[in-house]
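Team,

Forwarding the record for the chain on the shared tracking sheet. I've put the sequence and predicted structure together so nobody has to dig through attachments.
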Amino acid sequence: MAGKKLSCFDCGQVNRVPEEKLGAGPKCGTCGAPLMPGKAIEVDAATLAKASRVDEVPLVVDFWAPWCGPCRMMGPEFSKAAGQLRSEARLVKLNTEAHPEPSARLGIRGIPTMIAYAAGRETKRQSGAASAAQIVTWVRG
């Protein structure tokens, strides 16, 4: 069966979704959670590791911390961008204070930092706060 592989952010199950159905609100076949939610989802280190390795739809990760002013300022913008990119990419957030291991392994030196993954590889990285329009342009660019 053709389609794009997506890991569920709730249960971890890998699902295959036909490309033409990505914008139609696909759900996990195991738990029923939305696979393309159109909002930024908070993930843990294990979920990020699996999704960045398995997903065949671009995955954009915002590395942030609750004490970081620019991170808190960019949070709502990142969520707006997730809505605009609903059928093109999945946007997730990783709290670097709660999950420091991925940040150290990936060489994150400043936050907020966004990393885009495609087909199991990091494709680009950007540090600093950005508006929703800048995030959308960066993801599509």
